């Protein structure tokens, strides 16, 4: 089964709106993202139901702790058999290496290890905030590429970044190093709290592997039309 390049962020705090949204897409097998808000409310039972429906899952918990804790947490999470899982690259190489080891240990025999990716700089972070609040000096694209290189060196499969940084990441880490890119908006949509954004078409042109889309679908008056528009734009971005 080929996985959809469009990952729908199910940013809800209970199950009801999840099924109200997904029912609008009929029997289509989707790639969905379960983040902290939904996972902390609905837990593993929801993941099982999503899998039963044939959906692919990105479990977005953005682990960031000491290497031992992250490694052991990943060992537990591996048993959930999700497709993608993530950490913060800011935790450093040892933490990312332990994350991967934990995932490998926890993956049930005969099953695939979840793809493990690292968040570089959140798409809600502007260069100014990164420099002034986080006291990370440099240009944001250089920092993103640096974190991507650390993730690659640690053996991870890819990173989360804005589409804007994808060409530089691919140049530094190779074309097969995965880029999963939130910060996606259709023309005319509100930026909300996002800072580094593109349209789906621009993201494809910049060679993102996957786009993560939340509010452009979930807050739309017509989520089905929004998804169709995103798919059309994606196909035009080649
Ligand atoms: O890891 C993520 O998925 C993520 C990383 C990042 O840098 N920026 C980011 O927006 N995300 C997630 O992507 C989704 C974007 O949602 P919208 O802004 O509504 O499209 C949210 O669920 C965020 O948690």
Description:
The radius of gyration is 17 Å and the shape is globular. The protein has one domain (6-236): Aldolase class I (TIM Barrel). The chain is 44% helix and 16% strand. It is built from ten helices and eight strands. The protein is of the alpha/beta class and 238 residues long. Strands 1-2-3-4-5-6-7-8 form an eight-stranded parallel β-barrel, surrounded by four helices. The chain binds orotidine-5'-monophosphate.
> Rg, please?
17 Å
Strand and helix order: EHEHEHEHEHHEHEHEHH
Strand arrangement, major sheet: 1-2-3-4-5-6-7-8
Total number of distinct structural domains: 1
Strand content: 15-25%
Distance between the termini: 22 Å
The H-level CATH homologous superfamily, spelled out, is Aldolase class I
InterPro entries: Aldolase_TIM, OMPdecase, OMPdecase_AS, OMPdecase_bac, OMPdeCOase_dom, RibuloseP-bd_barrel
Keywords: Decarboxylase, Lyase, Pyrimidine biosynthesis
Function: Catalyzes the decarboxylation of orotidine 5'-monophosphate (OMP) to uridine 5'-monophosphate (UMP).
Domain Orotidine 5'-phosphate decarboxylase: 5-230
Question: What are the key terms here?
Answer:
about 240 residues; alpha/beta; binds orotidine-5'-monophosphate; OMPdecase_AS; decarboxylase; OMPdecase
């Amino acid at each position: 089964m080929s996985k959809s390049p469009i990952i729908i962020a199910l940013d809800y705090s209970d199950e009801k709106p999840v099924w109200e949204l997904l029912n609008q897409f009929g029997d289509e097998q989707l790639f969905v993202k379960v983040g902290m808000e939904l996972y902390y409310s609905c837990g593993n039972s929801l993941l099982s139901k999503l899998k039963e429906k044939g959906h692919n899952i990105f479990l977005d918990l953005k682990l960031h702790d000491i290497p031992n804790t992250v490694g052991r947490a990943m060992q537990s999470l591996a048993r959930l058999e999700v497709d993608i899982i993530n950490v913060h690259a800011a935790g450093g190489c040892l933490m990312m290496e332990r994350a991967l080891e934990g995932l490998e240990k926890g993956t049930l025999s005969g099953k695939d290890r979840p793809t493990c990716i690292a968040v570089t700089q959140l798409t809600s972070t502007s260069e100014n905030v990164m420099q002034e609040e986080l006291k990370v000096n440099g240009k944001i694209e250089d920092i993103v590429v640096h974190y991507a290189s650390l993730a690659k060196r640690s053996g991870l499969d890819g990173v989360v970044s804005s589409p804007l940084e994808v060409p530089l990441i691919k140049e530094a880490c190779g074309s097969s190093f995965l880029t999963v890119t939130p910060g996606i908006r259709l023309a005319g949509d509100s930026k909300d709290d996002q800072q580094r954004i593109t349209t789906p078409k621009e993201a494809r042109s910049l060679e993102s592997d996957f786009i993560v889309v939340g509010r452009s679908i979930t807050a739309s008056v017509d989520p089905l039309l929004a998804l169709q528009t995103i798919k059309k734009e994606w196909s035009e971005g080649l």
